[in-house]
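Researcher: I'm preparing a figure for a lab meeting and need a structural model of a single chain. I don't have an experimental structure, so a prediction will have to do for now. The sequence is pasted below. Please return the structure as tokens so I can convert it later.
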Amino acid sequence: MIDYIHCDSKIKAVLLELDKYVLNYIDGEEGWATRDTREVLETMKDFCVRNKPFNDRLIRAFIDVSVVSVRNFENTTLGEAIYSLSSYFYEVLPEYKSYKPLGVDFGKGEPF
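Model: Understood. Here is the structure written out token by token.
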């Protein structure tokens, strides 16, 4: 069972690291990786605030974010924060282990 208050604070921590990353590494210019990461995290934060369970597409979108973070944000505090959130979901969401990333469906079809 997910603790939405704790989850919200973990997501806020990742968003803070994302803001720092955008300022320090890419001079304030967001590219697709940071925009997509922000969109998924903001949507997850909204679900937490409303104590609403994450839907399948949102979880799969976050898995995409965590996969992309290995390549795009490695050796940064943002990459570490995303990994920490992913580890948290792995612990508290039993179904998290069985989900596959959205892959080429990311950004297509129904929104999260």
